[in-house]
C-alpha cells in the first residue's frame, strides 16, 4: 500500500509537524519572555553616572568610549551630555531623541520605562570641572550575556519540546491504542463464543486504516455469525428430517427380519432401498445448500449460452415429464450470453423444472420462457398446478419449507432454496408468484 494514500500516515505526519512548529513558535516566544522577566536587574544610575564622569575627567572622550563599550556588554547604552551636547553618540529611539532636549532642560533625574524590561534614564552628575548629565537606555534582555541567552534558549526549547512531543505522542498513541483495544475486546468475545460481538460505530466509522480494519472485522463477524447460525439451523433441520426416514427404515428392516417368506422380505428390502436413496438425496441436497451458503470461494466461471443450457435441461427432464404425460413448452427464447458456473446453473434449472413437473397435474403443461432486458436475463418456469397460498410465497425459498400443498408431492423443501442461492452466487435473485389462470410461476434472474 502506498503510504502517501494512508490517512493514518498523514495524521501521524501532520501531528509531528504541528508539534515541531508549535515548539519553534512557542519556544521562541516563551524564551524571550523568560529572559525579559528573569534577568531584570536594578541599576544604580547614580553610581553609573559618577563612573562615567570620572572616566571622562580622567581620560576624555577616549576613556568615555572605553567605558561605554564595557557598559554595552551589560546591555546599557550610555553617554554624557554637557551643555545639551552629547560627548559621544548612542542609539536612541526617535521618539526619545525628540523628547531628550526637554528632559535635559529640566535639570532633574528622570527614569522612564516605556515597556517592561526597557528603561531610559537622565541622571544629573557634578564633577570637579563642571555639571554634566548621563543619558542611558537599558534592555533587560540585552543585559544577559549572549552565551547565557543561548543556554536559556536551548533549555526552554528542550523542555518545551519534551512536553509537547510527550503530549502529542500520548494523544496519538491513545488514538491508535483505543480502537486496537476495541478490536481486541471484540475478538476475545468472539473467541469466547459471543458471535454477535462487533466493534462499535465510534471506531468503525473512522476514515483511516484502523476504521477500515474495524469495518472489515464487523463484516467478518457478521458473515461468521450468519454461517454459524445457518449451519446450526441446517443441522437442526437435517436432524429433524432424518428422524422420520431413519425410523421408517428401522421399521422396514425389522419387518424384513421377521418375514416368513423370501418374497415378503424382498419387498421390504426394496422399500428399504428406496428409503436409503431418499436419505442419500436429502444428504446431497443439504451438502449442496451448505456449500452454497458458505459462499463458494473460487468457483470457476465461463461464458455460457443460457438459451442452450435451458433447452438442454428441458430435454434431460423429458423422461420424468413423459412418465406423467406432461408437455414441456419453451417460448420467447432469446440469445443470451451469461458468465457463470455451468454445473451450478444446471443444478438450479433442474430443481426448478423438477419442481414444476412435480406440482403439475397429469397431462399438464410446463411453460418455460427466457427473456433479456436491461442487462438482466430472466428464466420463467410456470406450472398449472394448485399454486401457493399468498401468505406462503415469501417462505418458498426457505430451506425445508413445505407449504400446505406439499402433500401432493414428495420432497424435502430444498430445491428452491438451492436454486435461489445459485442465483445469488451469480449476482441475481429469484421470485415467485401465482400465475393468472392457476399455477405457480418462478423467475430465475441473473446478469447477462
From TrEMBL:
Compartments, as annotated in UniProt: Membrane
PROSITE patterns: HAMP (PS50885), HIS_KIN (PS50109)
Domain spans labelled Histidine kinase: 237-448
A matching Pfam family: HisKA
Membrane-spanning ranges: 12-31, 152-173
GO molecular function, a single term: phosphorelay sensor kinase activity
GO CC entries: plasma membrane
E.C. number: 2.7.13.3
UniProt xrefs under Gene3D superfamilies: 1.10.287.130, 6.10.340.10, Histidine kinase-like ATPase, C-terminal domain
Annotated HAMP domain residues: 174-229
Main location: membrane
Superkingdom in the source lineage: Bacteria
Membrane association type: Multi-pass membrane protein
Catalytic activity: ATP + protein L-histidine = ADP + protein N-phospho-L-histidine
Keywords, in A-Z order: Kinase, Membrane, Phosphoprotein, Transferase, Transmembrane, Transmembrane helix, Two-component regulatory system
Protein name: histidine kinase
Amino acid at each position: 500500500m502506498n503510504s502517501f494514500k494512508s490517512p493514518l500516515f498523514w495524521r501521524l505526519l501532520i501531528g509531528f509537524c504541528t508539534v515541531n512548529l508549535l515548539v519553534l513558535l512557542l519556544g521562541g516566544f516563551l524564551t524571550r519572555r523568560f529572559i525579559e522577566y528573569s534577568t531584570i536587574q536594578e541599576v544604580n544610575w547614580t553610581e553609573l553616572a559618577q563612573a562615567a564622569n570620572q572616566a571622562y575627567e580622567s581620560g576624555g572622550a577616549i576613556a568615555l568610549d572605553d567605558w561605554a563599550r564595557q557598559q554595552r556588554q551589560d546591555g546599557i547604552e550610555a553617554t554624557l551630555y554637557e551643555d545639551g551636547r552629547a560627548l559621544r553618540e548612542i542609539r536612541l529611539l526617535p521618539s526619545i531623541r525628540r523628547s531628550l532636549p526637554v528632559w535635559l532642560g529640566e535639570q532633574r533625574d528622570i527614569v522612564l520605562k516605556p515597556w517592561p524590561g526597557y528603561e531610559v534614564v537622565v541622571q544629573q552628575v557634578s564633577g570637579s570641572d563642571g555639571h554634566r548629565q548621563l543619558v542611558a537606555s537599558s534592555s533587560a534582555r540585552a543585559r544577559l550575556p549572549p552565551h547565557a541567552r543561548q543556554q536559556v534558549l536551548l533549555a526552554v526549547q528542550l523542555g518545551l519540546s519534551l512536553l509537547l512531543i510527550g503530549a502529542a505522542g500520548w494523544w496519538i498513541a491513545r488514538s491508535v491504542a483505543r480502537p486496537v483495544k476495541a478490536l481486541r475486546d471484540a475478538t476475545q468475545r468472539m473467541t469466547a463464543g459471543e458471535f454477535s460481538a462487533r466493534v462499535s460505530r465510534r471506531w468503525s466509522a473512522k476514515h483511516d486504516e484502523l476504521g477500515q480494519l474495524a469495518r472489515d472485522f464487523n463484516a467478518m463477524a457478521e458473515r461468521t455469525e450468519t454461517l454459524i447460525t445457518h449451519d446450526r439451523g441446517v443441522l437442526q433441520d437435517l436432524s429433524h428430517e432424518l428422524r422420520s426416514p431413519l425410523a421408517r427404515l428401522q421399521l422396514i428392516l425389522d419387518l424384513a427380519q421377521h418375514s416368513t417368506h423370501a418374497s415378503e422380505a424382498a419387498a421390504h428390502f426394496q422399500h428399504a432401498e428406496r428409503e436409503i436413496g431418499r436419505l442419500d438425496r436429502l444428504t446431497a441436497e443439504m451438502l449442496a445448500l451448505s456449500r452454497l451458503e458458505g459462499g463458494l470461494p473460487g468457483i470457476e466461471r465461463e461464458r455460457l449460452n443460457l438459451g442452450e443450457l435451458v433447452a438442454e435441461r428441458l430435454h434431460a427432464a423429458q423422461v420424468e415429464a413423459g412418465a406423467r404425460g406432461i408437455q414441456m413448452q419453451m417460448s420467447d427464447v432469446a440469445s443470451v450470453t451469461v458468465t457463470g458456473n455451468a454445473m451450478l446453473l444446471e443444478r438450479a434449472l433442474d430443481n426448478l423444472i423438477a419442481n414444476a413437473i412435480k406440482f403439475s397435474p397429469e397431462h399438464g403443461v410446463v411453460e418455460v420462457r427466457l427473456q433479456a432486458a436491461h442487462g438482466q436475463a430472466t428464466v420463467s418456469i410456470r406450472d398449472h398446478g394448485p399454486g401457493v397460498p399468498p401468505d406462503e410465497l415469501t417462505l418458498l425459498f426457505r430451506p425445508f419449507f413445505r407449504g400446505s400443498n406439499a402433500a401432493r408431492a414428495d420432497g424435502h423443501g430444498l430445491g428452491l432454496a438451492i436454486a435461489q442461492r445459485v442465483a445469488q452466487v451469480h449476482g441475481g435473485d429469484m421470485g415467485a408468484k401465482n400465475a393468472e389462470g392457476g399455477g405457480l410461476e418462478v423467475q430465475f434472474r441473473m446478469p447477462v
